[in-house]
Amino acid sequence: MLKCSFIKGPILHRLKYSKGRGQSLAKAVGMRSNKNRNIIDATAGLGYDAFILASLGANVTLIERSETIYKLLQDGIGEGILFGGEIGKIVGRMNLIFGDSKNILPHLSPEVILIDTMYKDRKKTALVKNEMRLVREIVGSDSDHTELIEVALKFATNRVVIKQPRYAEPIKDIKQCSHQILGKTIRYDVHMVA
Ligand SMILES: C[S@@+](CC[C@H](N)C(=O)[O-])C[C@H]1O[C@@H](n2cnc3c(N)ncnc32)[C@H](O)[C@@H]1O
Predict the structure, then answer these.
(1) Closest by CA position to 73, among listed 64, 86, 81, 82
(2) Structural domains in the chain (count)
(3) pTM for the whole thing?
């Protein structure tokens, strides 16, 4: 059964073995120079990326449009807050909003926007085997991802970061990114807008 938890499971493994602000995700969103970043995770999913960013000090607004995933995430955040301690503090920096980011982003004056849709082929990433495959069964394939990126590029004031499998084709109809951060299986396409 699909569940979102920040107090047990794979996210704690990722937290324990991550390379802090030296990890690719943190570099991509610009946390090396500013640890108090305000970040919008426009495709929240189970909140794992957001949790890692919040663990490094960022304030993260998470937007999720699937009611089912939103409720799982809401439960996971609630559980984390009740758990307290360091996890409670991290989860306390995560602010969850229900809705479609294409409609919400224009009202938020976002600095940094992270986008990780279901659109692309994820067969090489570890999570696809279990949780992400279940998420995909619920939300489908996010076929409007180009429109979401266009809205993000219009409203972000610092950068838009698009998470992709490392060898994914460039996204059709989206201009070339400013630079890329490469991980073992993941690539972050960074569009600087400031
Ligand atoms: C690949 S998952 C994100 C996984 C997430 N990065 C994590 O670490 O758990 C994509 C999620 O984004 C959501 N999503 C896609 N497009 C969206 C949009 N325009 N607005 C809000 N949520 C969206 C989907 O419903 C899905 O739950």
Answers:
(1) 64
(2) 1
(3) 0.94
Whether 12 is covered by a domain: the verdict is no
Model confidence over 70-96: pLDDT tens digits? 999 999 999 999 999 999 999 999 999
CATH number at residue 77: 3.40.50.150
* From 3, 64, 98, 153, mutation site for ligand 1 pocket: most ligand atoms within 8 A of C-beta: 64
162, exposed or middle or buried, with CB in 10 Å at 0-12, 13-18, 19+? buried
**Residue with CA at minimum distance from ligand 1 atom 17:** 43
Range of the domain at 37: 21-192
Alpha helix ranges (H) inside the chain: 10-17, 24-29, 48-55, 67-83, 85-91, 101-104, 131-139, 145-155
> For residue 137, how far is its CA from the centre of ligand 1 (angstroms)?
13
Whether 8 is covered by a domain: the verdict is: no
Please indicate, yes or no, if residue 183 is contained in any of the structural domains.
Answer: yes
3-state secondary structure of 26: helix
**Does residue 4 fall inside a structural domain?**
no
